[in-house]
UniProtKB/TrEMBL annotation:
<dbReference type="Pfam" id="PF00497">
    <property type="entry name" value="SBP_bac_3"/>
</dbReference>
<dbReference type="InterPro" id="IPR001638">
    <property type="entry name" value="Solute-binding_3/MltF_N"/>
</dbReference>
<dbReference type="InterPro" id="IPR018313">
    <property type="entry name" value="SBP_3_CS"/>
</dbReference>
<dbReference type="GO" id="GO:0030313">
    <property type="term" value="C:cell envelope"/>
</dbReference>
<protein>
    <submittedName>
        <fullName>Polar amino acid transport system substrate-binding protein</fullName>
    </submittedName>
</protein>
<comment type="similarity">
    <text>Belongs to the bacterial solute-binding protein 3 family.</text>
</comment>
<feature type="domain" description="Solute-binding protein family 3/N-terminal">
    <location>
        <begin position="63"/>
        <end position="288"/>
    </location>
</feature>
<feature type="signal peptide">
    <location>
        <begin position="1"/>
        <end position="24"/>
    </location>
</feature>
<keyword id="KW-0732">Signal</keyword>
């Protein structure tokens, strides 16, 4: 994750006590998505010519083992019954159907997904993960979406992302927002003789959004679809802060040099060409980040 970065109805997850000693949140909400929207599942037929190219191990098992970190609304999260749903899930399910197998989702800490792929525990990762040059050094990415960074602020309390010196900014731990976006902006503040930005990192994105809703931070930095979703669900509390910037691709990581990459790429392109990809994106309201060409290792910069 991220940029972990693409919208629905949810009850924000909050932690009454957060590990790492950051914040004690009052008014904790539920840990389920009881208001998750009913999103139509796009039915996809098997494409025999593409499915024939799957590695034998996956063909024989009949499943694609997918490592996923949740919650990251609207891309991957659990509904009120505990089922993993979201835009990423529907797209991966469609890819699996195209290949004549099923996707088996296994939950993981975000930072453990790539090592688990390298170890062969998962066939592929799926967690709104930004394809970066640094990550490409260890795994290959099948790029399927374009997302940027979008900040949010409390309603009526303006924060300029490019001049947030002295502000407290919530991020999800290990995302690009924590490792690059906010730290780089903070360094610029310090270089100008201004107070640094205090990065307030949370293990889960929903807790970062909750902190902003409750006014315990001044702003939040997250992937554009995620921020848009949080704002949609809390329109009376939070709003966009500044424009979207630094658009980059989301990718599914697979082992370096694995033949699975080209198969997944071909499956995504098949869904793009058939119109099913666009339909899935529209069903989740994330069509602004839809792509027209699936690529491998398309990191920007």
């Amino acid at each position: 994750m991220s940029v972990r970065s693409g919208a629905r109805g949810y009850a924000l997850r909050a932690f009454c006590v957060l590990a790492g000693g950051a914040l004690a949140l009052s008014g904790c909400t539920t840990n389920t998505e009881d208001n998750a929207p009913a999103v139509e599942k796009v039915q996809v037929a098997k494409a025999d010519a593409i499915a024939a190219k799957l590695p034998d191990k996956i063909k024989q098992s009949g499943k694609l083992v997918v490592g996923v970190n949740i919650p990251y609304q609207p891309n991957e999260y659990k509904d009120g019954s505990g089922k993993i749903i979201g835009y990423d899930v529907d797209l991966m399910d469609a890819v699996a159907s195209t290949l004549g197998v099923r996707a088996e989702y296994q939950e993981s800490d975000f930072e453990k997904i790539i090592p688990a792929i390298q170890a062969g525990t998962y066939d592929v990762g799926m967690s709104s993960m930004t394809d970066t040059k640094e990550r490409e050094a260890t795994v290959d990415f099948v790029d399927y979406f374009s997302a940027g960074i979008q900040w949010a602020q409390q309603k009526g309390k303006p924060v300029d992302p490019n001049n947030a010196c002295g502000k407290r900014v919530a991020v999800q731990r290990t995302t690009i927002e924590e490792t690059d976006d906010v730290p780089n902006k903070s360094k610029a503040c310090e270089a100008a003789g201004k107070p640094k930005i205090e990065v307030v990192a949370f293990d889960e994105q929903s807790a970062a959004a909750t902190a902003l809703v409750l006014g315990q931070v001044d702003a939040m930095s997250a992937d554009s679809p995620v921020t848009a979703y949080a704002i949609k669900q809390n329109q009376d509390k939070i709003e966009p802060a500044g424009p979207l910037f630094e658009s980059q691709p989301y990718g599914w990581p697979v082992p370096k040099g694995a033949p699975l990459a080209s198969v997944l790429q071909e499956a995504v392109q098949h869904l793009i060409d058939s119109g099913d990809y666009r339909k899935i994106a529209e069903n989740w309201g994330v069509q602004d980040g839809a792509i027209t060409k699936a690529t491998i290792n398309g990191a920007v910069g």
